[in-house]
Amino acid sequence: METIAALYSVQPFWVWMALGVMLLAIEAAFSTEWLLWPAVSAAVLAVLTALGLRMGFAMEVVLFAALTVAATLLSRRLIQKVNSVEIPDINDRDLRLVGERARVVEAFVDGRGRVFASGAEWAAEIDGEGPPPGDSVIIASVTGARVKVRLA
Known about the structure:
The protein is α+β, with helices and mostly antiparallel strands. It has 5 helices and 5 strands, in the order αααααβββββ. It has a 5-stranded mixed β-barrel with strand order 1-2-3-5-4. Strand 1 (101-109) and strand 2 (112-117) form a beta hairpin. The chain is rod-shaped and about 85 Å long. The termini are far apart.
């Protein structure tokens, strides 16, 4: 601890930069989403001390805490605004199918047939008369292993 205190008294930039890099490395390794802003706050303090703004260790720790809290709260608010738009999960294949073209592979009888979409064959339903095999349809919704389609 004495070594760190001695290093801080001579080069506070490196102490804050090392803290920021360590926090960023832990964030990258574990993807907690909580350590990014403390890492950025430590980097801001490193830059401030490199520019010659020396406030003393206690005041710098208070500034570090304030920057961390402010950045975290602002980022959460921004994330909520960005995520408020209904965006389908890119990992959910069923949701990604909606709006995609499918090729009819089995004729529709009584509104039921089969289509090929996204590398797989699906049981399909259509309102009204379905197109012949080989024609395209648009997937309107997905329910389990069945898709509801409409004419293209």
